[in-house]
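User: Could you check the structure of this?
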Amino acid sequence: MTAANLGARVTGWGFVVFTIGAVSWIVVGLTSGQQQLLYSNLFLGIVDLFGIWRWLGRRARISDATRAEERRSTKLSGEALFSVASLDGLPVRAADGSVAGHAVDALAGCGGGGVEYLVIRIGGFGGIAETLHRLPWSNVSVRDGEVHTARRPEEFQELAVVV
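Assistant: Sure, the predicted structure tokens are below.
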């Protein structure tokens, strides 16, 4: 649950599960006199409590605020804003509708703050044999939880490679 990166709440509940496990092992360590088991799980329990605070408290509150701002932007200006952090993992659809890659990150200029390009991953599985490429932001639109571009699938391999 914590490694899947499925959002603040799922990660936070993963830390709750870890905390329950740590407390259980603390009880075993206390009742059986196993000091190392006790001390290691006391430490892990403290780390888990920090994870609960961070993911179910702070990050969940930030995620809620971001979603509220996304909804508000649509009502105020008619143009939807989105959290750049939400780009990670979104499918990148080519002109023919096929998924040509997946978004990894976006890079913005320090001066004006505008997004310059999207980093996308193409091919591979689980980080093995995949390549990272730069897709100019001017070629991108984001809607319905996907990144869309007018590029044809065969044009993706021509994009600059991120080293």
